[in-house]
Structure formats: C-alpha cells, structure tokens
Amino acid sequence: LRVAVLLAAGGQFIGTLLRCFPPDNNWLLSTILICCGQTISGLVAPIPLSGGVLLSATWFPSNQRTFSTAVVMAGSFTGSALSFLIGPILVDDVAETVVANKDGRYVLNSEQEKTYFSQISAMFIMEAGLMGILFLGIFLHFPDRPPKPPSRSSGSERADFKRGLSKLLRNFNFLLLASLYGVSCGVYSGWCSVLDQNLEEFGVGQKFAGWLGFIAVISGAFSGIFFSL
Fold it and tell me: End of a domain among 145, 172, 197?
C-alpha cells in the first residue's frame, strides 16, 4: 500500500512540476510540457481512485469499511470540485477582457499574453507546491499497514497481483463493466474539464460555469457518503 501511494503522489508531483516550466513566455514548449505532465498525472490517477478500497480493508474494521471508502472517494471528488472554483479565482476570464473576432476566437496582444501566462504559471506553481508537500508527508510518514490489524481479514494474505490481473483480463463480465464505467467517466470528465467553453455559446461565463461544476461534483460526492451510512 505504501509503495502504491508513494507512486501515486510522486507521479502527481512530477506531473504538476512539469507544468511549471519553462518560466519564460514560450507557449509551444509550455503546451508540450503541460501535456506530458497531464499524461503522467493521468497514468497514476487510477491508484487513488481504486486504492480507497485497499486502504479501508487494511486500516479499518469490516463495519467501517463502506463509510471509510466513501470518505476516500468523496475526498477525491471534492478536490475535483474545488478545481472548478480555484481556476476562475486565479486566472481571469478571457471573455471579460478581450473581444472575440468574427470567428469567435480571442486574439491577445503581447501584454495580455504575459498577464495570462503569469496567472496560469502561478496556479501551476501553487499546485506543484501543494503536491510536493503532500508527497513529502507521505514519504516521511505513511506506514504500509497499522501495527495491529483492525480485523482478521485485514491481516490475511492478499491474492497475487499478477495472477489476479490475468484472471480479470480474461473475465468478459469484468471487461464489459470496466469499459462501460471507463467510457462514461471519460466522456463526463472530458466534457467537464472544458465546461466553461462548452457553455460559453449560451452566455455562461467562466465563474458561473465553475460554480455549476462545483455543485454538480460536490453533490455526487456527498451523496456517496450519505448512501453509505
């Protein structure tokens, strides 16, 4: 468990750190590094999304596992919800300061480019700093398991990972369920990540779109906790 959590936190830290470079006003190189950073973050993202079950099974007795798993998942979605608010707070809405041309695109002058580049860079640096603190805390103190197992099943030997993965990949029902879940989550996550752009043609601004995304995600997160009680 410790190795998995370190891998997830370390990958997220490296991913957020890559987005902080280069420091100068180089949009092309920044775009490449942002894509690389997001790719690394995406590769390790399944660990915290699925690791809540293992965390609950290792650290909590059986009568508390449903609730603890719900809290872990709610924490993940709460972070996603906050991103809808943090972005508009730290980075100004282009539509409020720049007039779109006939094609609906916003053309920035050099001064405006520097302003937005500075705001976006500051947001990336803040995120990298927070992930660095989190990674350091996990590295210094996150034991693999509690000193005493909270239940008999917590201390039992786990199934071999490679053997279990091989069985899952040959299980049609699992592949079907995973595909359905992955496609639905992927479409939803991709659409929400550009929510302000999707709603822009309806006259919805960046801040209002952020609040819509925040309320939608936070409602789902706390609904999970409520129904787990």
Answer: 145
